[in-house]
Structure formats: structure tokens, C-alpha cells
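forwarding from the other thread:

> can someone predict this with N-(aminocarbonyl)-beta-alanine?

sure thing
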Amino acid sequence: MEGKELKSLDELIRKNLTGADLLEFNRIHYGRVDNHELEIKKENFQYGSENNFEISCYDFPANKEEIRKPRIVKVGLIQHSIAIPTDKPIIEQRTAIFEKVKKIIEIAVDEGVNVLCLQEAWSMPFAFCTREKQPWCEFAESAIDGPSTLFLKEFASKYGMVIISPILERDETHSDTIWNTAVVINEMGKVIGKHRKNHIPRVGDFNESTYYFEGNTGHPVFETTFGRIAINICYGRHHPLNWLMFGVNGAEIVFNPSATVAGLSEHLWAVEARNAAIANSYFTCAINRVGTESFPNEFTSGDGKPAHKEFGHFYGSSYVTAPDGSRTPGLSRVKDGLLIAQLDLNMCRQIKDKWGFCMTQRLDLYANSLNEAIKHDFVPQRLPKN
Ligand SMILES: NC(=O)NCCC(=O)O
């Protein structure tokens, strides 16, 4: 599988560039000379080193304003591999992931994180490659009182933290349907809503359309004590209008919990969420799982490769981008990790005022054109050569 040996692209740069060259690289690539790294508590850093898990923290300050006070929020992004093999009983697999993630959440709490987001379908292997219904559908759970929600609610209320929990959802009220859903739990431990993945991939090993349908929740933005947040789940990041609508609804931070692999998308990863932050004047937080997941039975893909049992390499590399386009280095490509970013949400409006992207976006023009484009007798606006 592609490049499992490379730990991190950012580390590769740091190792090979020094002095003025490194500063110039930082200025042009990250959008700022200094990465504004914030210190992690010694004991947390130590825990990470001893447990093969990375923690880093960066600051995104905004300009001082006369009238508004800074609106500082700490976000935490968790990326992780599964904890035990996929042929173990479902409950054991989930419990093992809970145990692993619990320690990372405790560190996030200790570092003062206000809004925490986990990766796509965080409490299970990404078994949608297999197309098998059994046993994987058994991971599907209620957004309100399923095991993942109950597990995370405790942390949310105990530590006053908003938590975004992307799960495989079972909706018992609507005929036991299954969805790919991000559940939002507020700092009192209450589920304040959910967002269902709008765009379902049919590419490579991502056979997700066997399990769930395109989401029916629109583009909700959740008002929280720590800002207006939204979630664009994985494959939705390839759709600029999906990002756009979260911006239109007023998001200040959009999380992109994902599960994607090296051969398919790694060259797109650093571009898409970053571009969305620039185009929509909000912060984006892109999270990807890590590791290679092996399944008991061989499965096939849409790309003609021989049947195989391994799905991955999921390349991690979670990162945060600010509305001004500056970004953090990515987390590791191979290790579990916690990326913390301290954001001043005032930057969203400051960048809207500076660049005017939202003011100039011509929604009316596109709405009219799109209304035409969806008609069955649509004629594209093309002019003949002569
Ligand atoms: N989970 C998911 O939607 N993956 C699709 C592949 C990609 O978008 O990179």
C-alpha cells in the first residue's frame, strides 16, 4: 500500500529544509512563517510518546477589534486506528475503541478543548468496502441513546465540552433505516441535533451506497456556546456547493470527519478543506482515520483490482485551516493523534470584510442558473464556433 513508511509530509519538510528556506516554505505553504505552536502539558506529551500517539496544538489569533472582544475557542480533532481485529465480536471491537479514545479525550479535556470532533464512523471499522450486511450493520446505533452517544454524553456534560460524534446511525422511528450521521452533543450532554452525510461515494473500495442513502438533513449549522458549527462528512468535501451551504447558513467552524485512503485521495486532501475555508471565510477541521483494516472475507471494488481483504492505508494527516487560508501542519500519516487548535472566531468576519468572498458570491445568479440546469429539457449555455 502507498507510502505507509512516510510518517508525515510536514516532518519530511522540517527534516530537509532549514533556516531561511524553511521560513520561506512556511510562509508560502502554510500561509504563515511561524506555525504558532502552543505548548502541550509535559505529562500529556509524555503519554503520547509512550503510547505511540501524537499531540500538537496551534494558535490562530485574529486582529484586535475596538468593539468586539476576542472569541477564543479550542477545537480538538481525534484521529485513530481501530483497536482489535475485525473478526472479534462487535461489542468487543467497539469497547476496545472506546477504551483507546477515552484516554485521548481525557487529554483533550486536560488541554482545555471546548469542541471535540471524532473521525467518520469512529466507533467501528470502515467495513463498507465489504458489501456484507452481517455483521457490520450491527454497528448501527441510535443517535439519541446508542452506545457511542451514551459514552460521549458523559464526557460532554462532565467537562462542559461540545462533542461531534460521527456514527453509523440506525433510525428505528423510520423503519430501521441506516445513515452515516454526525451527532452533536452540547456541553450539558444533550443531543442538540444531527447531520446526515449528503454525498455517498461509489469509488474504489468505498462501497458505502450498499449501506445508506444520501442524507436528508440539509446543511444544518448548530448554535453552540463555542460558536456556530457544522459538519461536512468525508466525501462531501469534494462538493464545493456542500461547503458553500454551510457558509450560507452561517457556520464559523466546519468539521470534515473522514475515512479515506492513500492511493485514492491523498493528493486532494490538503487542498479541499483548505480551499473551502478560503472560499467561505470559516475555519475548517479535516480529520482522517489511520491504519490498514483487514476483513475476514475478500471483497471487490469498482476499480478492477483483484479481490482483496485489506482496506487502507488510511493516512490520517488531520489539519485545521483558518479563513485567511493559513493552516496547521498535519498530524501523522500513521499514528493516532490529537490536534488542538485555538481559534479566534473574530477572524471569520475580518476576512469577510477584507476579501469580500461572501459578499461577491452571486448566489442569485447561480440559483437561477442551477434552476435551469436541473430541468429535463435544459439547454447548456454554449455558443457555436461560427
Ligand atoms: N468515507 C468516504 O466518503 N470516503 C470516500 C473517499 C474520499 O472521499 O476520499
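The pocket of N-(aminocarbonyl)-beta-alanine is lined by residues 120, 201, 206, 234-235, 258-260, 264-265 (CB under 6 Å). thats all i got for now
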